[in-house]
């Protein structure tokens, strides 16, 4: 189904549904949920992408309009990975990490595709990115303006993999609390925005000098098909439990 449906159109669709519907964000991660739909079985539930988090939350707030229909809400935890989600959203199934990409990445087995030299480059890139990223997370926690969507290519230089000085100047950068930065370093597969995490890995594994190049989609499929993480399996179990309730 098209991701361009309005909130009103999706609500009306749900009212007419005779099958359990799993409502997902589905703007960037719809392919993962399609794999999941195929695994769980279309006879048990239909996965409906609504085109983004804001839409999903708006539909959730109107759930009394289709209370006689079985609807399961699944959303990326996003910034709620650092602060607890509001109690009024307690019926939503949240990803364990920042996003569904994080739940796929969890355990870091996908990093086994890196050679020793690539692993060193990745670690350097990751740690430098986290130095910046912790600054944004600290702003979030303190109730200040923050932005977690900056692409690693925008933040890091391609040669030394260090933070671009000109970038730091544009954001009035200040070093974050050391404990916060260390926590993100220790739990980066959970706490860094999944799209940024895969971008950090892809910039290494898609290098033009590499014989075998990987895209984000190929890495996502690798995670899904060959080694589902315990966090992703846990997410699947939560969805299946809600479907069968």
* Gap from first CA to last CA: 25 Å
Rounded to the nearest angstrom, the radius of gyration is: 19 Å
Query: How many strand segments?
Result: 4
Average pLDDT metric: 93
Low-confidence stretches: none
Kindly report the oligomeric state of this protein: single chain
How much β-strand is present in the residues?
A: 5-15%
What is the helix/strand order?
HEHEHEEHHHHHHHHH
Query: Which outline best applies?
Result: globular
In short:
The chain is an alpha/beta fold. It has helices at residues 7-15, 30-40, 53-60, 100-105, 116-141, 152-155, 165-171, 178-186, 188-191, 194-205, 216-226, 230-244; strands spanning 21-24, 46-49, 71-75, 93-94.
Topology:
Blueprint: H1 7-15, E1 21-24, H2 30-40, E2 46-49, H3 53-60, E3 71-75, E4 93-94, H4 100-105, H5 116-141, H6 152-155, H7 165-171, H8 178-186, H9 188-191, H10 194-205, H11 216-226, H12 230-244
Parallel strand pairs: 1-2, 1-3, 3-4
Helix pairs in contact: 1-3, 5-8, 5-10
Structural description of this entry:
The longest helix has 26 residues, at 116-141. Strand 1 (21-24), helix 2 and strand 2 form a beta-alpha-beta unit. The chain has 12 helices and 4 strands, in the order H-E-H-E-H-E-E-H-H-H-H-H-H-H-H-H. The model has no long low-confidence stretch (mean pLDDT 93). By secondary structure, the protein is of the alpha/beta class. The protein folds into 2 domains: 7-100 and 229-244, no CATH class; 107-226, no CATH class. 31% of the residues are buried. Strands 2-1-3-4 form a 4-stranded parallel beta sheet, with helices on both faces.
